Amino acid sequence: MTALARSIFKSILLILNILIFNNILSQTVPKNIDEKNDVRDSISINKDSLNLKKDTILPKEQLEDVVKMKAEYKNSSSITNKQTTLHKNAQIIYQDMQIDADYIRFEWETGKIYARGEQDEKGKIIKPAIATQAGKKYEYNEVIYNTKTKQAIAFNARTEENEGVIVAQKTKKYNDSVYVMSHAMMTTDEYYIKKKDSLPDYHISAAYIKLLKGKNNSQVVTGPFQFFIEQVPTPLILPFAILPFSDKRSAGILIPSFGERQDVGFFLNGLGYYQPIGDHFDLKILSDLYTKGSWNLKPELNYLKKYRYSGNFAADYGYTVRGIKGLDDYSKTKTFRIAWRHSQDSKANPYFTFNASVDIVSSKFYNNTVNNNYIFNGNVLNTTQTSRVNVTKRFLDFPITISASATYNQNFATGNTDIRLPDMTIAVNQFYLFKPKTGVRTGLLENINVNTGFALSNYVTTTEGALFKRQMWQDLKTGAKNNISLSTNTTVAKYFTFTLSANADNVLTTKTLEKSYNPLTNLVEDNYKSNVAGYTTFSTSASLQTVLYGQKNFSKNSPIVAIRHMITPSLSFSYSPDFGDRSWGYFRNYSNARGEMTPYSIFEGGIYGAPSSGLQQTMGFNISNNLEMKVRSKTDSTGVKKVKIFENLNVSGGYNFAAEKYKWSVFSVNAQSSFFNNKLNVNTSLTLEPYKIIFEEGSSIGTRTDQFGHFSLQGINVQLSYPMSEAIFGKKEELSKKYKKKGEIRNENYFFDDDNYAHYQPTWSLNVNANYAYTRGLSREGTTTATVGLDGSIKLTPYWNINGSTSYDVERKELAMTRIGFARDQRSFTITFNWVPFGQYKVYDFFIGIKANILKDAVKYKERSFTQPNSTF
Description:
Blueprint: H1 3-25, E1 49-50, E2 56-57, E3 67-70, E4 74-78, E5 83-94, E6 97-107, E7 112-116, E8 118-119, E9 125-127, E10 129-133, E11 136-140, E12 142-146, E13 152-161, E14 164-173, E15 178-187, H2 190-193, E16 202-213, E17 218-222, E18 225-229, E19 232-238, E20 241-244, E21 252-254, E22 257-261, E23 265-277, E24 281-290, E25 295-305, E26 309-322, E27 331-344, E28 352-361, H3 373-377, E29 384-394, E30 400-411, E31 416-432, H4 443-446, E32 449-463, H5 470-475, E33 477-492, E34 496-518, E35 523-545, E36 548-553, E37 560-576, E38 587-591, E39 597-601, E40 616-632, E41 640-656, E42 667-675, E43 680-694, E44 703-725, H6 735-738, E45 741-742, E46 751-752, E47 758-759, E48 763-775, E49 783-797, E50 800-809, E51 814-815, E52 819-825, E53 829-836, E54 843-850
Antiparallel strand pairs: 1-4, 2-3, 3-5, 4-5, 5-6, 6-7, 6-10, 7-12, 8-9, 10-11, 11-13, 12-13, 13-14, 14-15, 15-16, 16-17, 16-18, 17-20, 18-19, 21-23, 22-23, 22-54, 23-24, 24-25, 25-26, 26-27, 27-28, 28-29, 29-30, 30-31, 31-32, 32-33, 33-34, 34-35, 35-37, 36-37, 37-40, 38-39, 40-41, 41-42, ...
């Protein structure tokens, strides 16, 4: 057979194959194609073309699967060029790949598909081609896809992945897992992704970006890139980045805030790296860097097990450098902090709980902190720091509860540290001695209940330098205590409640005190001896209480409907022996500087304190008052509104029958009330001295006399707080009712009038607090403190928020800690700025945080609220 004959024979076979497969399978329509749009325009047959219906299926032998095609306007296949072209709403499907475009060309032999979006008269793409694979859509101006190698090259491609999108001039797909893009930009702007806006509010731009798609997550790997805000380039340029493109936890760089602090220079705060570890752990390593040499390293390990527990380990370690090296003002201070938080879920185990709140810092940590969050939070004003670990065990079959705890309390003013390690208590659940079988208790006998328990404690006061050294163990005090209390109550004469109680304490301790006067130093010296000793104390009390009501009703025309006064008076009597009597053996004497014998308790300063001296036969009284009134109100649905004049007004005092002099105690008055619809809260307390105090000439300290009835003010404290907002001016008309036109894209929260002016109702809040305290005691001149504080925020627009806090010392006539800040919501990220303008720490801090969930681990973002206590979580 000649070459020409063989060529003709092959062409005939090819034509027969195409006709056979076309007639058999041409009725196959892809499931995602709407049959209503099925257009079957016939195309004239010429020498080099075939008439193809809407769906064309090529010989299966050439490819791994069937290629399905359709077009709305024109289909043509050329045997000479061995290709098929589709025009107008064209579609081609091969395996899991579907391409929709205005123009598609398929080459039979090479298996290449070329697709192009819809063009206008000038050849500009006005509607992109769309490729769908594995449920995800990709947009291109032009794309070339090889059905055999499954590789692709696309131009002006738009790739969406989870909450982000990448747009590149050229994209090459190597396989289903690797995409390489040149001249690309990436953003997580929701408006740009949903095509509500043609430009993103921010993006990162890079010459090359590689997208690595995994089974559970994706990553973007890029070389040098620059950060743009509203198409404006910023100085934030990084040499490389590995960013997660997944809604799952992913490792990544933590972007810092930056600013300046007067004492340590310019800084980057929070620069670091985030690394998830398994399903229950993640690790952050943060750093703070300052231009004057200060630095701080902050590792943080978080852990979480749902329905069981959660916690956090954190540490700070660094150096604070101030001044210039070689000069007198130069200083370099090492600081450290170790913190641990552990919280058990309440549902995990009701019979066993374990919680920890440990925060141990160096004594000069807050005065030399290089973590600016402690300044904004106000932690730099801390004078004490307490750490505690607690374990509690309950039993289903035993009526006891066992608790153990360890506490570590630091006092930065004195430099002392108090440690209790461990404290353990075994408490027996309350029970009734004579509980009736019916369960209804009546009378004094049946209401007798018993509370008892045992405690063991170890306590020491030491300094930071002596922690866990020999001297600390020598100073350690150990003791045990057993407490038993009984109480009962009954009703007397229908209106009175009578209560009777008794209490006993048994204490053992390993150290006792011996006092002596040293004439060489002219000081009284305390010498603790290591020996086991104990004491027992007991007391009894009885009380009688009732409730009295009084109400005054007014006429129908009066704006006041009624005033109600509720009085709760109570009388009590308590008795305890004089444990200072020598017969008990709890007290001894030492000779002071004048040779006088001065009594003291050998248990003074002990772990459970010392027994009281002096016989106690005290009659106490307490009068509690509640005063309310009802006024007519048009705003209330009932027509009547309740107003509290005094929520609580207490007057209390006592009289000791056994005292040789000063039988009356000081009188205390406490009041609590609220006004202006319970907005203004007022708390007041004062103490009154019932005996006359006289002052000798030239003396600033007075002497208490036995002249009763000369009441003088010894102390007063007044606290006021008032939260305000725009609601105090009444309810405003809703903008939706006043204006019908609402904004779009960036202006959804605005309403527009007929002249297209935007309208928005600003919201604000302001907390006003004031405190006044006066303390006199026996001094001629008392001490006064008075402060006024403000803490608030104002939302000028839906995207601008200004906040701040300050306080003013009225006595010193100076402003205390003051902070001013603002936040700007830029749709997909937030800009925050905080500033402390004066005081010991003058600092400003600027931060940009991405809000997208896919970058929440890789790019540090959190809503900073510097009015809340600092937490490592």
